[in-house]
TrEMBL record:
Family label: Belongs to the TrhO family.
EC number: 1.14.-.-
HAMAP family reported for this sequence: TrhO (MF_00469)
Entry protein name: tRNA uridine(34) hydroxylase
Pfam families with a match to the protein in the record: Rhodanese, Rhodanese_C, UPF0176_N
The keyword Magnesium belongs to this UniProt entry's keyword annotation: no
């Protein structure tokens, strides 16, 4: 039995195209004690490969974090399989707001130390002592409250293209980095303010809320199911939508449009834009925001240097890359000094802090 991908992304894309069937993109997570993550990983791969599931799934002793797509007509079989696993029975599935058959092109089930890289020593606090879950209606009420501090638990390149009105957005590259920064920033308000947090699908807030409670914050709330579930509830129940712009997602779609507001700008010319691109120079691959005009002018590259390299014959590009490390880890980047219009979110964060905490 082969427990890895047999097809390249390109071959997979062609197959999906040919099948002509609608696929469903969804995500879920669960904290649970998994004794043997390697065995569990293999079982999932076999069962899900047979159902034509594609996606990125992390398994650890602490649980599972899954983002995936599957043929819509296999959904019931998939759900039956989930229900056969004790800690995944009746789990809430976050269904993508914008569907795209090509959201994932491989099935990767990986064993990790953690399902979210938090850099925390689990023995120091109780992860099950988490904040209060709130739905969209309760969340809307909470953020109207002048005693609320609303914090975006995502990274700078995520909140840059979309976020809730009046949210603090720490200028961080990683979740791990954000925890001590936020704690330090808000430490004077552990008793008197309501700390309300949100992230993409809710998983980061599960950890963060437990962390902040452990650090002495008395009133901690988290948006259940994150922006994805909030949007679903807003659309279904026709309630007020306080989110602006796009929801950044970690698959081929890059983002889901939630509202028509374009709140970011092209990192090259400063015009309104909110589409992330990876620099077309494979040796760079920087994640940045680029408008259509700059994309055409720069051949999808982030700098003139990259444009020159990208225009070379493939063999020459390869020769230039020889001996250089793999820089394709796109989500660790998203910052570069040569991009004049990358907004400095750190300043926004500080200004908001002083303003609204006074209020
Ligand atoms: Zn531009
Ligand atoms: Zn580049």
């Amino acid at each position: 039995m082969q427990l890895y991908n047999k097809l390249s992304a390109k071959e997979r894309a062609e197959l999906i195209e040919k099948a002509g069937k609608d696929r469903l993109t969804l995500s879920f997570y669960q904290y649970a004690k998994i004794e043997n993550p390697h065995t569990f990983r293999d079982q999932l791969f076999i069962a899900w490969d047979a159902l034509d599931v594609l996606g990125r799934i992390y398994v650890a002793h602490e649980g599972i974090n899954a983002q995936l797509s599957l043929p819509a007509d296999r959904f019931n079989a998939f759900k039956t399989h989930l229900d056969s696993i004790s800690f995944l029975k009746d789990i809430r599935l976050n269904i993508a707001v914008e569907q795209d058959n090509m959201s994932f092109l491989k099935l990767k089930v990986k064993v990790r130390d953690k399902i979210v890289a938090d850099g925390l020593n689990d023995n120091t606090f109780d992860v099950t002592n988490k904040g209060r879950h709130v739905d969209a209606v309760q969340f809307n009420e909470l953020i109207e409250d002048e005693n609320t501090i609303l914090v975006d638990m995502r990274n700078h390149y995520e909140s840059e293209i979309g976020h809730f009105k009046n949210a603090r957005r720490p200028d961080v590259d990683t979740f791990r980095e954000s925890l001590p920064i936020i704690e330090n920033d808000l430490k004077a308000h552990k008793d008197d303010k309501k700390l309300v947090m949100y992230c993409t699908g809710g998983i980061r807030c599960e950890k963060a809320s437990a962390y902040f409670k452990h650090k002495g914050f008395k009133n901690v709330f988290q948006l259940e199911g994150g922006i994805i579930e909030y949007t679903r509830q807003v659309n279904e129940s026709k309630i007020e939508n306080n989110f602006l712009g796009k929801n950044f997602v970690f698959d081929e779609r890059r983002s889901e449009r939630i509202t028509d507001d374009v709140i970011a700008c092209c990192h090259q010319c400063g015009e309104p834009a909110d589409t992330h691109e990876n620099c077309a120079n494979d040796a760079c691959h920087l994640l940045f925001i680029q408008c259509e005009k700059c994309k055409a002018e720069m051949d999808g590259c982030c700098s003139t240097t990259c444009k020159e390299i990208h225009s070379l014959p493939y063999e020459e590009q390869k020769a230039l890359r020889k001996g250089q490390g793999n820089s394709n880890d796109i989500f660790k980047k998203g910052r570069a000094d040569h991009l004049p219009y990358k907004k400095d979110l750190r300043n926004i964060f500080e200004t908001l802090n002083t303003d609204s905490i006074k209020g």
